[in-house]
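Dissemination and training. As part of the outreach component of the grant, students in the summer workshop were shown how a complex can be specified as a set of sequence lines and then modelled as a single object. The example used during the hands-on session is reproduced here so that future cohorts can follow it. Participants entered these lines:
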Amino acid sequence: MGTSLIHPTAIVSPEASLGDNVEIGPFTIVHGNVRISGDSTIESFCEIGYPANDPGSHEMLEIGSHSRIRSHSVLYEGSRFGDGLVTGHRVTVREGTKAGRNLQIGTLGDIQGHCQIGDYVRLHSNVHIGQQSVIGSYVWIFPYVVLTNDKHPPSEILNGVTLEDYVVIATMSVVLPGVRIKEGALVGAHSSVSKDVEANSVVAGSPAKFICETHEIKFKDDAGTSAYPWRRHFHRGYPPEAVLEWISEFS
Amino acid sequence: MGTSLIHPTAIVSPEASLGDNVEIGPFTIVHGNVRISGDSTIESFCEIGYPANDPGSHEMLEIGSHSRIRSHSVLYEGSRFGDGLVTGHRVTVREGTKAGRNLQIGTLGDIQGHCQIGDYVRLHSNVHIGQQSVIGSYVWIFPYVVLTNDKHPPSEILNGVTLEDYVVIATMSVVLPGVRIKEGALVGAHSSVSKDVEANSVVAGSPAKFICETHEIKFKDDAGTSAYPWRRHFHRGYPPEAVLEWISEFS
Amino acid sequence: MGTSLIHPTAIVSPEASLGDNVEIGPFTIVHGNVRISGDSTIESFCEIGYPANDPGSHEMLEIGSHSRIRSHSVLYEGSRFGDGLVTGHRVTVREGTKAGRNLQIGTLGDIQGHCQIGDYVRLHSNVHIGQQSVIGSYVWIFPYVVLTNDKHPPSEILNGVTLEDYVVIATMSVVLPGVRIKEGALVGAHSSVSKDVEANSVVAGSPAKFICETHEIKFKDDAGTSAYPWRRHFHRGYPPEAVLEWISEFS
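and obtained this result:
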């Protein structure tokens, strides 16, 4: 188990594979079908590698290095996360989730599994990701957003949502089954998106309608600076190489 | 305690009544005022039989056989569930909930108690059921739906919502106090239902308005098959006798 | 540690300051940077005084006397609560929250920190309070309400929401960044509030529009009694001196 630091009250299967400098907090359970890479922390009251119901999902749960899983979270077996996964408290991630690097899942996040997530995606608190969702990289989803998948619930036909790179979905919005939101588009708060959204456009309302191009949204406090694409001005938490590319893109 | 399997870290009151083949997971607390019937599993980090504030609600918590309570859930004393209760993670059910057979409550479900729920009801993730709600059988409620009860909040006058059999409420919808949604009706996503809904009709919007009859909604992929009543085609998880009845109903 | 009652499975730092008659439940963690005043209860599976990321937020977590923190809750260091704090289950409160007396936070509440909350505030289940929110006294917020703060997400410019005394926000509503809702105003269910709301007025819809004055809303069952201001008739849980003042105000 390398040089891992396991709290005496934790219950860690001897079959779990823990890298160097992995810390397991009090009262946390780690099942056997789990690989946690180095320099990661699993906090208190978590259950990691929870057995999947789905008999085809007994693959290993893989968590990349430099990850931090906050308290009371449950991660199922059969999912895979790149390096730098960070979660809030009480996160649930079911089997079949395939995520890239540096995913952040906020407190109360509920990932239903069988979905794809790119790199550097940010899910704020209490986001619900339905099965068959396909999420690109550098996407932002704000609290109480639901990505749906069943056009005629309940049915056996799932049509996941697709969010391309740099998409932003503001709080309390629903994206209906099969909808594709194209690169850099923005969905306003409290919207219900029933049709595909063009790249770099803003939609809002229920049903959501086209409002303007994203570059037409200006900061009030600055002299006419566009608020979008957000990568022009918002750089916190991103890798230097991405930020340098973004800076050169807009200079 | 029959042949129950209690994890050594669990704290189980000697007054709790556990049937044969009941499993209690790690770090779980079972209070005394509880009866769990056979072949049931209570997973980790749960608190079962949590004492009710309400002095009139110190009845026993009764959980039927073949039930499964997933991790981090809290069930109060003074509620009663038929056989085959299944919950997701982090479910809260307060006192005075009277539910039939095979209720499924999704992750983060919040049942406020003092409510009635029929047989084979499906609550997806993060559903909020207000006090005085009356829910029939074979009902489906999707994520982030709220059943309210107070017309002029805050007040002391509660008017619960009534959902008749086979009702479906899609994600992120609110049902306002005292509303009755009649048999087989469908509420579209992101709706606010302020008036009674007729049987087998579809309503949507905020406030929700009549859209069409449910049988007018067709699957895109099939040659004109109606998506509703859903019991015509969706049978997963239901008992054979119900499915046989549904098949003969539509043949 | 006075005469505190610490469950043998709890992990309590010797540096934590606990008043007389403080009870710490099973499997609960109390960090060192915490002061809990007398006659308070911390229930099971909680983590109290969770270390803040923000290096400027390593102040002590202070919880007033006669408080009750229900199970599975997480309270960060660097926050301060007056006497009589009561929470539901699975509450999260981050650093920099400064709250007055007798705050109630419902199950699944998510307080993002760096916010101010007055006295006798009631947050029902699953309320999300964004950073920089300023909430007066005697405010009511119902389930699945989000107070936002970022006009052009993601950005580094936060504009919190202000709710004045006696404001009521009904379920599943969003208050957009920088909005001020003035004393005694009421926001209807499933609304999105994008502009300031005048005192004692009712707004609803998405975007929310003026409906009427609050006093024009009458109870159906009584002969023309106004439902608002609610303090005229709803007194449960308030201190006798406030209730006496309210009674004299309307007599």
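Chain B touches chain A through 37 residues (CB under 8 Å). Students were then asked to discuss how this feature might be tested experimentally.
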